[in-house]
Amino acid sequence: MRRYSVFAVAREGLRYHTGWERAWRSPQPKKKYDVIIVGAGGHGLATAYYLGKNYGITNVAIIEKGWLGGGNTGRNTTIIRSNYLQDPSAAIYDKALKLYENLSQDLNYNVMFSPRGLIMLAQTHHEVRGYQRTVMANQLQGVATEWVTPEQLKKLVPIINIHGPRYPVMGGLYQKRGGTARHDAVAWGYARACSDMGMDVIQQCEVKGVRTEGGKVVGVLTTKGDIDCDKLGMVVAGHTSVLAEMAGFRLPIESVALQALVSEPIKPCMDVVVMANTVHGYMSQSDKGEMVIGGGTDSFNNYTQRGSFHHIEETVRALVETFPMVSRLKMLRQWGGIVDMTGDRSPILSKTPVDGIFVNCGWGTGGFKAIPGSGWAMAELMAKGHSPLTQEFDMFRFREGKFIDESVAAGVAH
Amino acid sequence: MLLLQCPYCGVNAEETELAAGGEAHLKRATVGDSDEAFEGYLFMRENKKGVHLERWRHAYGCGKWFLAARDTATLEVFGTYPAQTTEPPADVTENIRAKYPDWSWKETA
Ligand SMILES: Cc1cc2nc3c(=O)[nH]c(=O)nc-3n(C[C@H](O)[C@H](O)[C@H](O)COP(=O)(O)OP(=O)(O)OC[C@H]3O[C@@H](n4cnc5c(N)ncnc54)[C@H](O)[C@@H]3O)c2cc1C
Ligand SMILES: [Zn+2]
């Protein structure tokens, strides 16, 4: 792989950009791999990457039914933060944030990580108490966050109306290290690095069945033929229940649509990410100037990547009160993704009832921020059979009642 | 926009008038049942891509719970029926089989 650098840009500039290589190979599947990962979203690709980088396991295929990054990874609004309440969540999300801080260097691919700061607005007394508690929990976890008053908040976000009639802004939870990154670049950067380690990223190949022998996985049936493996990682977000059914077990997951929308590009007006969870809306400004907006999930099971119109209306209505200028914006595009919601709204990184099958799912509405940490932890789980970062996220916690009391994926996109 | 006919009051209600209640025909776990039974009842879900039998409440109408058969891959509705039953009625099953001839419900499989 030829590395990207300022010299490469200069060199290519002098020869009409004819020397750029393809970022990854498009191989045909081999007969057998040590590890197969189903799903080339951020979490699947990151899992493969850290299997290779941290454990030297490179006889790996990542199998994708569409195009890589075409699932939720390429549909999300790219908010990154690690200001969670419970220790297991803080551990894995902050691991992810720390890896994001160096990801462009590590992958030699610009993921445009932008730690511009993130504020979660408190708009009810309940939220004020909740977020002040989170600030204290974060201090104990070593995650830097702070409480900001409405006046400080107004300085950070001049376009905000803190005196809203229905939900005045009473303060906020501020994480300076939070921000955004370029979603496609995260998938592409990992794919390029995986391909460079000799792994096969196989696109346009749907897994149709899982083969087991004596309670152990032996391979998968795909639209490009049968492929054998010793270990299988299911990392397919909204399609997790479909894959689990192929392998003969069930999960505490329901798939629902989550939508986002972007406005026409405007001049820079907001250089932090703002989330308003009570009214179900949040907003950030992209480098192109578009306001990137997300809201709540639909309430019914859905696999169509198409959400309900009234949720868009609700989201925009909420934002108009808090950011009056939104009322003058034209919206350009709107889209949906299918998110995997677990019984306690926290992710599942776990062994399964089938020997050799591991599952990484349940990131729901908020897993983009977790991609590097999740991949790191899942690779450790698959290579060693256990990981300190995943043990609380076991799928069997629902039987034992050991939930993660977090509402990480609160049904609001973030 | 999703439209479902409430089998009690006959109104063709659109989704803002309704509240979704998740998978239908779950068997309630009770005193003396195993942890697995409780786990199954409380958390494990079919979450089918395809035919999904589910509960709805006509929240801003007559207020009653009813059931619906819907295709989660296309949003097509096969029919709605009252909640006082342990299995989908024949007319709904027929509509489903017209599209999925091999379809069988978990309890009748
Ligand atoms: C509108 C929206 C906004 C969001 N906003 C945020 C945000 O601001 N911040 C945040 O942190 N998170 C956000 N999220 C959540 C985030 O996008 C997801 O948690 C994350 O991208 C999940 O990544 P993944 O790799 O697990 O899944 P995906 O990226 O969905 O990848 C799974 C892949 O598996 C493939 N697949 C499925 N079935 C098969 C099969 N049978 N065979 C082969 N391949 C298969 C799919 O095609 C897909 O590419 C948002 C999500 C949505 C939809
Ligand atoms: Zn009714």
Describe this entry's structure for a reader.
The complex is a heterodimer of chains A (414) and B (109). Chain A has two domains: 203 residues, FAD/NAD(P)-binding domain (3-Layer(bba) Sandwich), CATH 3.50.50.60; 150 residues, D-Amino Acid Oxidase, Chain A, domain 2. Chain A has eleven helices and 18 strands. In chain A, strands 1, 2, 8, 9, 10, 11, 17 and 18 form an eight-stranded mixed sheet that branches. An eight-stranded mixed sheet of chain A has the order 5-6-4-13-14-15-12-16. A two-stranded antiparallel sheet of chain A has the order 3-7. In chain A, strand 17 and strand 18 form a beta hairpin. The two termini of chain A are 34 Å apart. Chain B has two helices and six strands, in the order βββαβββα. In chain B, a hairpin with a 5-residue loop joins strand 5 and strand 6. Chain B has 109 residues and is of the alpha+beta class. Chain B has a single domain, classed as Folate-binding superfamily (Folate-binding fold), CATH 3.30.2270.10. The radius of gyration of chain B is 14 Å and the shape is globular. Chains A and B meet through strand 12, strand 15 and helix 11 of A and strand 3 and helix 1 of B. Zinc ion binds next to loops of chain B.
Keywords:
heterodimer, A: alpha/beta, FAD/NAD(P)-binding domain, eight-stranded mixed beta sheet, 11 helices, 18 strands, B: 109 residues, alpha+beta, Folate-binding fold, four-stranded antiparallel beta sheet, binds flavin-adenine dinucleotide, binds zinc ion
Summarize this structure briefly.
Chain A has 414 residues and is an alpha/beta fold. Chain A has helices at residues 6-14, 42-55, 87-101, 103-107, 125-141, 150-156, 183-196, 240-247, 309-322, 371-384, 397-400; strands spanning 32-38, 60-63, 79-80, 118-121, 146-148, 172-175, 179-180, 200-202, 207-213, 216-222, 225-234, 253-265, 273-276, 281-285, 290-301, 331-342, 348-351, 357-361. Chain B has a single domain, classed as Folate-binding fold (2-Layer Sandwich).
